[in-house]
Amino acid sequence: QVQLQESGPGLVKPSQTLSLTCTVSGGSISSGGYYWSWIRQHPGKGLEWIGYIYYSGSTYYNPSLKSRVTISVDTSKNQFSLKLSSVTAADTAVYYCGRGRHWFDPWGQGTLVTVSS
Amino acid sequence: EIVLTQSPGTLSLSPGERATLSCRASQSVTSSYLAWYQQKPGQAPRLLIYGASSRATGIPDRFSGSGSGTDFTLTISRLEPEDFAVYYCQQYGSSRPYTFGQGTKLEIK
Description:
The structure holds two protein chains of two kinds. By secondary structure, chain A is an all-beta fold. Chain A has strands at residues 3-7, 11-12, 18-25, 35-41, 47-54, 59-61, 69-74, 79-84, 93-99, 111-115. Chain A is built from no helices and ten strands. The termini of chain A are far apart. In chain B, a hairpin with a 7-residue loop joins strand 9 and strand 10. Chain B is globular and about 35 Å long. The mean pLDDT of chain B is 95. Classes of the chains: A mainly beta, B mainly beta.
């Protein structure tokens, strides 16, 4: 079955850009008509949807993050990526990638990103 | 933005009992576009229900979802030990951004 795995730095300095990659295995990112999403969870708190991408490159972002977010896709590597610029401590969270545009299934295991100098 | 309010914040029950979790939306959710997730400590959320009442693949039939408009319910008919976790609702209607509730913690009494 499809599995997702996030990767990237666990520590990012304030004002820098957070960059994460989600690698999809067990299925092609460009088949099946699926969208691919990023969601985050602040420590001990609830979930926040960040945005999604289709294999064609079409995207939609949460308006609250839109000015700082870029989601891209690399079909040759079966990966999609998240970039979040100008990070602050408020961006410290576990970042998840997931399959889907509306509901998300499955999810990656998540990766904790801490913003600190 | 649609705000989802889940209640209760914590629910204490025993295995074998019935659990009823509520999710109330600040405005009507388009076409019952509501999902439920289960999250255990240190794990990613797992999709249980989508479309308010459709079970995801592999989800036991003791889990059921209902509701429409602004009021939705997740029911677990007979609690198993592995069901004790945090549950989140999420709306994905035409009113973006998609939003999640703050969660209900289901704990063993």
